[in-house]
């Protein structure tokens, strides 16, 4: 449905916000209705149908939940499960906004918003609801794993990534995604594309780790019939196929120096030439790359071109391993249980405490992918209503090696503390919040120690 045919309801107790929404949307939608009092929601929904509801997260009401937005979201879902609900929140409440998406909200926007970002979010919400009306959502959920599972979680690190994705997706900036195997780099790339201004254009995936030296140019740049022995017809490469959309180069850290040079030339010139021709083809792509390799270390060892890295990572996203995401492992496990209990027609619904403890203590070298496979196996073999620790087989996975710490060069407590703080800050590239968390300190306490040691 085009935005110009949409009927939208905005609920916010801030009259300035409502006025801004009305002024922005009145020229571009069929109808915009605003309301200060969320308690009028049931009556409004009973009187007329809306395509989208913009719902604020916080109100000056008598409710004692401290989370009025979630309360009214549930009320809306009870009355109309099909209407798209977009939550309005400040960055300080982003954890609640993420929770609201799990509760059934279509999306959320942060205050203060950019007008083009809000309009884009509304258009995307309409596309989602239109698509859902054409197919059975229940059938889809029963037979295929949910998209973007990697974003399920309430840990601080995942909230930071969600916020970062929301900021960078609408731009055309090149993005480099770093992270161990199984952390979901490919799905994050797809999510960024779907949230970008190129969402209706192609998303093309190229696994560079699977390309031999001889196939590299042909697969990426294309070829003309007769350019080499097996070139029986003209063929567009991945760059050309992705023109206008997004190209995702996976395993970018695995290519050789000659391949790096060829790739750099294409990115610098923004044009590609098929093998066997001399005609350059202009490129208009958004580039997303990913690797589990220590690409910066490789550059320091002259095994990777630094000028190529600069082209790849205008913005960098580092996906954390599952072992650093706290109780997200339990949320993800519950999610996989729901998927596979439906797929295999089992009655298993949850995890006993010992099973949760087992998941918390395991390092998951295979990350989310390993957890998913472990839960699938457990559901298949389980005969009870609850998964027990004995049902979850983690022995087939590689155990995390034990790292023996080096002996300290000094036993002075103050020197040890200073050294530990410096290592934590260096590890997190100067991020005080993350360094403090790893040290088990508050930000204030860490700042006091920085002053103490003149760091």
Shape: globular
Q: How many strand segments?
A: 16
CATH hierarchy: architecture of the largest domain: 3-Layer(aba) Sandwich
Low-confidence runs: 62-66, 135-147, 396-406
Give the SSE map.
Layout: E1 7-11, H1 15-25, E2 31-35, H2 41-47, E3 52-56, H3 68-79, E4 84-90, H4 94-102, E5 107-111, H5 115-133, H6 137-143, H7 156-168, E6 175-178, H8 185-194, E7 203-207, H9 213-221, E8 222-223, E9 235-236, H10 238-241, E10 246-250, H11 257-269, E11 271-273, E12 280-282, E13 286-291, H12 295-300, H13 306-312, E14 315-318, H14 328-343, E15 350-351, H15 353-361, H16 367-381, E16 386-387, H17 413-427, H18 432-439, H19 443-452
Parallel strand pairs: 1-2, 1-3, 3-4, 4-5, 6-13, 6-14, 7-10, 10-13, 15-16
Antiparallel strand pairs: 8-9, 11-12
Helix pairs in contact: 2-3, 14-16, 17-18, 18-19
Brief overview:
By secondary structure, this protein is an alpha/beta fold.
Can you characterise this structure?
There is one protein chain. This protein is of the alpha/beta class and 455 residues long. It has four domains: 3-134, Rossmann fold; 156-318, Rossmann fold (3-Layer(aba) Sandwich); 322-391, Helicase, Ruva Protein, domain 3, CATH 1.10.8; 413-452, Arc Repressor Mutant, subunit A (Orthogonal Bundle), CATH 1.10.10.60. The protein has 19 helices and 16 strands. The protein has helices at 15-25, 41-47, 68-79, 94-102, 115-133, 137-143, 156-168, 185-194, 213-221, 238-241, 257-269, 295-300, 306-312, 328-343, 353-361, 367-381, 413-427, 432-439, 443-452, and strands spanning 7-11, 31-35, 52-56, 84-90, 107-111, 175-178, 203-207, 222-223, 235-236, 246-250, 271-273, 280-282, 286-291, 315-318, 350-351, 386-387. A five-stranded parallel beta sheet has the order 2-1-3-4-5, with helices on both faces. A five-stranded parallel beta sheet has the order 7-10-13-6-14. The chain has a two-stranded antiparallel sheet with strand order 8-9. α4 links the parallel β4 and β5. α2 packs parallel to α3. The radius of gyration is 25 Å and the shape is globular. Mean pLDDT is 82; it is low at 62-66, 135-147 and 396-406.
């Amino acid at each position: 449905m085009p935005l110009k045919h949409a009927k939208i309801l905005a609920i916010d107790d801030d009259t300035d916000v409502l006025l801004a929404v009305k002024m922005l949307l009145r020229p571009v939608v069929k109808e915009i209705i605003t309301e200060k009092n969320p308690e009028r929601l049931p009556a409004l929904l009973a009187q007329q149908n809306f395509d989208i509801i913009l719902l604020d997260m916080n109100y000056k009401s008598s409710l004692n939940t401290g989370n009025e937005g979630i309360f009214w979201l549930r009320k809306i879902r009870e009355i109309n499960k099909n209407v798209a609900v977009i939550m309005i929140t400040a960055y300080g409440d982003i954890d609640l906004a993420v929770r609201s998406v799990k509760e059934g909200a279509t999306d959320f926007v942060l205050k203060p918003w950019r007008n083009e970002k809000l309009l884009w979010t509304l258009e995307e919400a309409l596309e989602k609801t239109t698509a859902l009306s054409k197919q059975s959502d229940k059938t889809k959920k029963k037979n295929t794993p949910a998209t973007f599972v990697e974003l399920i979680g309430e840990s601080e690190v995942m909230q930071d990534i969600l916020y970062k994705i929301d900021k960078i997706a609408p731009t055309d900036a090149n993005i480099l995604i770093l992270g161990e195997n199984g952390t979901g780099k490919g799905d994050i790339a797809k999510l960024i594309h779907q949230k970008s201004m190129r969402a209706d254009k192609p998303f093309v995936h190229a696994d560079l780790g699977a390309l031999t030296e001889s196939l590299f140019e042909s697969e990426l740049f294309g070829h003309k019939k007769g350019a080499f022995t097996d070139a029986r017809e003209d063929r567009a490469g991945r760059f050309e196929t992705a023109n206008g959309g997004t190209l995702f180069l996976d395993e970018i850290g695995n290519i050789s120096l000659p391949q790096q040079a060829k790739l750099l030339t294409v990115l610098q010139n923004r044009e590609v030439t098929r093998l066997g021709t001399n005609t350059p083809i202009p490129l208009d792509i958004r580039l997303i790359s990913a690797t589990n390799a220590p690409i910066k270390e490789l550059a320091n060892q002259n095994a990777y071109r630094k000028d190529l890295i600069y082209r790849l990572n205008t913005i960098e996203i580092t996906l954390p391993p599952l072992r650093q995401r706290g109780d997200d492992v339990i949320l993800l496990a519950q999610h996989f249980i729901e998927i596979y209990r439906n797929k295999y027609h089992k009655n298993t619904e949850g995890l006993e405490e010992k099973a949760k403890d087992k998941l918390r203590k395991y390092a998951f070298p295979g990350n989310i992918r390993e957890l998913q496979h472990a839960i699938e196996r457990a559901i298949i073999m389980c005969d009870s209503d609850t998964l027990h620790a004995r049902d979850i087989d983690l022995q087939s996975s590689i155990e995390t090696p034990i790292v023996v710490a080096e002996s300290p060069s000094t036993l002075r407590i103050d020197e040890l503390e200073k050294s530990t703080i410096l290592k934590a800050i260096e590890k997190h590239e100067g991020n005080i919040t993350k360094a403090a968390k790893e040290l088990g300190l508050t930000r204030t306490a860490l700042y006091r120690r920085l002053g103490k040691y003149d760091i």
